[in-house]
Amino acid sequence: MTGLAKQYRDRRKSRLFGPIVVMALGAALLLVALAVFLLHRFDAAAAEREQHMVENGLERQLHEFDAVIVPQVNWDDAVKKLDHQFDPAWADFNVGNYLYTFNGFTRTFIVDGEGKPFYASIDGERVGTENFARFSAIASQLLPEIRKAEAARPALKPRPGKDNILTVPIQANGFATVDGQVYLVVATLVQPDFGRILPRHARAPVTFTALPFDAAMLKAFSERYLLDRLELVAPGRSPQGNAQVALHSPKGQALALLTWQPREPGTMLLDQLRLPMLGVLALIAFTAFTIVRRGSRVLNDLFASEARARELALHDTLTGLPNRAKLFERLGALLGQIDGKGGAVAVLCVDLDRFKDVNDTLGHGAGDVLIEQVAERLRRVCTDAALISRLGGDEFVVVCDRSSREWVEALGLRILTAVREPVVSAYGKIEASCSIGMAIIDDAGVVPGEALRRADLALYRSKELGRMQASFFEPAMDNALRERRALEADLRLGLSRDQLEMVYQPQVDEAGRIIAYEALVRWNHPDRGVIPPAVFVPLAEESGLIQPLGEFVLRRVFAETAAWKDKRIAINVSPLQIRLPGFVALVTRLAARAGADPARYEIELTETALLADGPVTAANFDALKRLGLTIALDDFGTGYSSLSVLQRFPVDKIKIDRAFVGCMEESAESEALVEAIIKLADALDLAVIAEGVETEEQMARLSALGCHEFQGHLTGLPISAAAIETTRLRARRIRRRA
Fold first, then answer.
1. Cα(361)–Cα(359) distance, rounded to whole angstroms?
2. Cα distance between residue 210 and residue 138, in whole Å
3. Which end of the chain is more exposed for a tag (fewer CB within 10 A), N or C?
4. For the segment 163-181, what is each residue's pLDDT rounded down to a tens digit?
């Protein structure tokens, strides 16, 4: 290995492994940062949850203190002993001593309707009412709330009876600081429960009970909610890092702070995971080192096979031909040599006809054999080609640095002939053909994509001409393609704006009576004028618009003909529609929406619609029959498998194609074919109708052959639903007059 080559390989190794080392270090740092971030977020979330828990717990504690007072003062006896005739002994036993002994309320005061105290108790012992003065400030803040609720209370009436409580508690609470001690003060209105004894005045006595927030209270609260170092401090003196909840007076002034040390589970977890994280970082570093060391050895082997790998990347694995990447590389080089002074490059796109049928009928193995054989024949025929490439699937491209149109045309014919030779394989004899699009590029500046596009346009023309053709690109093809795309856009717009309409052509019997109508779609373009269905229906099938077009036809026909109870309506359906899984559901939904009876409708299908005898087609066919629709086989006799179609699908009617009817007077063979179709229909017990009837002689001859239903310009031109409705209305009026 030369020094220069070694330096080149070393640079490539550093470009490969340098990012790996950086990524390993970055992953380690990211892992540490992410772990620290998540653990801190864990601490923050835990602190937030703990804060909500304490706030809600304090609120719950206050409600519990409120609740223990209610049974002692919301009581008929309380009204009697505290309002009607004050009984100090009763007040001692049931209020002052009771609330102190069982609930820890150290201060109890009772004021009358004027707010003057008439009872006081400290630590369960009755004392003088002058002790109320220390609590008068908080009482003056709570009392208006009690009186307001009392005034809004419904009038009290006796309501004796079990579980028939008269009133709901009226209470207010708040925090106050008295003699340096924080108290919870609860004001409760004295009320009756069953209403046997009612208050004497509009304002009843009010009890004030005070509970100190002392060490015992803090300990109980701390144990209940598992708080660490819970204490009560003055505002602004909370220890650094502690969580806190303020205790407010009724006026919103912060009197004290309930503080505690929040738990930090994330920090605790970080302490526990420090050693494991260091181990993970070491493992990442060791892994990166191992990858670099072993990868270096692997790279040496890869460099040795790189050239072959690059070559394989530019060739198709099945045929060994150059692939798309190699084609664009080589074609670009050849096109770059054109200077407009006589040089040229010929591009031939070769596409197999009906290759999908080979895969579907014989399997993909047979398709691979056919592709290999075609590639070999192209090598044999195109010996002067600059490049033979397989683009993928069943499409090949031949590139030649020739400018002679005659030489390129002769090459195309040789390819057509070579591909048509049957391929004998383990899968049997495989018949194949191809279509070719040829483009001669002699103008400078053309890129490979444009060269292939021109050849593709010519290939499309060959397909349009019936396949097994070789066509040259002409500038007019571009215009045709643009025109087709413009018409496709107009059709899409026309469907969205309801520019299409339906007409109905009568189907008559021998006496000329109308027995049915065939629904035909028409498009009167606002700028282009009338566009024949033979133009826009195939366009819809090719562009993916057949589904919205078919839905439009069904919706419009059902809506316009639902009231024609005495006539059958035939609707043409595209082969692509009958193969859609949701087709029958669409028919059912639209018919139901219009109120149309499916049994009066007939679906017209060409035999090509039934050739792809797939499960969806068969299921749709059976479902349509179950709905009551009849099936007519349109253009009968123009395909090669009509008899097999009749065997697989029990249709109800055969339509004799207009091509046979129009030639009856001039061709005995056509008349014989028509007669054979009619006899076949009789033998299979199928109805038969002839379309394209334009003369009395044709109708008479068809009748003599056994056909009794007719459709064509002779029997009636297509007209709108409105015109038919007018005719039907006029006929009904004539019948009523008769």
1. 6
2. 10
3. C
4. 566 678 999 999 999 988 9
